[in-house]
């Protein structure tokens, strides 16, 4: 398993990856078949991430196939340039092998080198293994976001979680 930054040439593999993970859990913002991201759109997304020093897009690959990714997005506005939010996913066949943890470790090395002091995420309040992973890495719950997802008419709460990097370094 290799972790590396995504390239524009990864766009097709990324589109296929997103289609696959959509059907592997109910923890993401999109349902199977719902994302209408073409290879051209994905190329633009990756180009933008590569062009911004406040964004980063890492892939976990195995035999040239994407098995996980973490995608951090920050802002250039002065008051927000220290903060950003990420999304993470791993192919179901590869859960529980430490890939999510390694992707997060990569982000935690990248972030302070790019002026990031605060990392945010949102997670379903019932996504226990993801919450355990984030907690292990030092993230703390900062609030409950009620009814963030609606799945088959049922409201699903999320937690806002955050990590202030200075605090982690102080420990
Ligand atoms: C959440 C998610 C990214 C975690 O990825 P992952 O690769 O399974 O994460 P890890 O393997 O690093 O950690 C998960 C578990 O595996 C265990 N683990 C870590 N390394 C391991 C290893 N080498 N061998 C066996 N187990 C290991 C961890 O202890 C952890 O166990 P826990 O659930 O009891 O805490 C993944 O489950 C996923 O994509 N889920 C669907 C989408 C999703 O929920 N995304 C997050 C939205 S906020």
What order do the SSEs take from the amino end to the carboxyl end, as H and E? EHHEEEHEHEEH
**Cα-to-Cα separation, first versus last residue:** 30 Å
- The backbone outline, from C-alpha atoms, is globular
Widest sheet: strand order? 1-2-3-4-5-7-6
CATH architecture: 3-Layer(aba) Sandwich
- Number of separate structural domains: 1
| Percent of residues in beta strands | 35-45%
Number of strands: 7
- CATH H-level homologous superfamily name: Gcn5-related N-acetyltransferase (GNAT)
- From the alpha-carbon coordinates, what is the Rg to the nearest angstrom? 16 Å
Could you say what the CATH topology is called?
Aminopeptidase
Helix share of residues? 25-40%
Q: Give the cofactors and ligands.
A: coenzyme A
Top-tier CATH class:
Alpha Beta
| Helix count from the secondary structure assignment | 5
């Amino acid at each position: 398993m290799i972790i590396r930054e995504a390239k524009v040439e990864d766009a097709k593999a990324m589109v296929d990856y997103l289609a696959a993970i959509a059907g592997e859990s109910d923890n993401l913002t999109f349902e199977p078949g719902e994302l209408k991201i073409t290879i051209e759109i994905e190329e633009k997304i990756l180009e933008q991430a590569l062009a911004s020093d406040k964004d980063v897009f890492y892939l976990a690959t195995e035999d040239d196939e994407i098995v996980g990714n973490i995608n951090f997005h920050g802002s250039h506005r002065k008051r927000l340039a220290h903060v950003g939010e990420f999304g993470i996913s791993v192919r179901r066949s590869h859960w529980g092998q430490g890939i999510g943890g390694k992707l997060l470790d990569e982000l935690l090395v990248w972030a302070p080198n790019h002026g990031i002091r605060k990392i945010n995420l949102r997670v379903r309040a019932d996504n226990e293994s993801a919450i355990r992973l984030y907690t292990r890495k030092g993230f703390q719950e900062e609030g409950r976001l009620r009814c963030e997802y609606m799945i088959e008419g049922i409201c699903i709460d999320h937690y806002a979680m955050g990590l202030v990097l200075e605090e982690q370094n102080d420990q």
